[in-house]
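User: Hello! I'm new to structural biology and keep hearing that structure can be predicted from sequence alone. Could you demonstrate with 3-oxoacyl-ACP synthase? Please show me the input and the output so I can see what each looks like.

Assistant: Of course. The first part below is the input, the amino acid sequence of 3-oxoacyl-ACP synthase. The second part is the output, the predicted structure written as tokens.
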Amino acid sequence: MSAPGVGALRVISSGLCCSVGYTADAASCALRAGMDHFQESDFVADGSERLRVARLPSATLWGGERLALWVRQAVADCLGGVKAFETADTALCLLTLERERPHGDDRTQFATAQAAQRVLGHTFSADSRVFTAGRAGLGHALLRIRHLIDQGHVRRVLLVGVDSYLNAATINHYLAQERLLTTMNRDGFLPGEAAAAVLLEAAAPDAPGFVIRGVGRDRADGRPDGSTPSRGRALTRAMRAALAAAQLKPDDLDFRLSDQNGESFFAREAANALTRLGVAPPTLTTADCVGEVGAATGPLMLAWLQRLMPREDGPGARGLIHLANDDGERSAIVVSYQPVTA
């Protein structure tokens, strides 16, 4: 069964730090132009081929301290223009990698959360929490965030997604599964790293500005290794739940923003889901510019759309974000934008 949709949330501000820009404004320009900053790394495949990656510039920090550096940059970018920011009524929600991935154990996740809290220099609400839910965890995080706000625990939530695939354990894991893009494997992804932050508050569905109008979640049986095929049914249900929460029909969508990362499994699943909806809106992507950035993907998408949708040459007023995890988690988010009138 699909989870019920979430009440609307307005994106007050957002920030971003990734391989194509250390601020959301800079990265948005690169994403809009289809630019990337892929480069050869010291990671080696098949004995001699140096893997291409989407890397941020730090050769001295690793682990939680490295991730915390990108978190600090993204949060500073997000809060730089926010007047009278109060941490007492703001919860920090950190979205990180799944537990099943290398370095996804509780101890490492806790170290990352501690490092992030330390570099931010703020004491947030006691309702702050960590979601070890990966790329598709955005849906779960948004549902919990609206619940926190509705219960009166906090007025605003700072959602931060952070992830990095650039460590030996992770690279070796995905090389062994033949899932990284190499000259011998064209059905793979380029590993990257990023952090993105969005400041959220409750809003009416027809509120002006950039608004998250509906969220849907579901669980798929299919797995990328082919052990169980996917026919897109769970993603279809998540999309329909998000549209129902937003009180929109599939034909109302102007575009979709896909998390497809170069692996045909996820691209085929999304195509099947959209066929069931009976629509084929124009497609936007981010991984072709920033690489696979895991748990940072969803917040990164929101940060980009907050800048892209108000433009005269933007993709339209209503869009669908969809995200998928290896473990079967599927999320769909309906967003809209309407100008703020004086």
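User: So the tokens describe the shape?

Assistant: Right, they're a compact way of writing down the 3D structure. Reading them back into a model, for example: Residues 1-5 have pLDDT under 50 and may be disordered.
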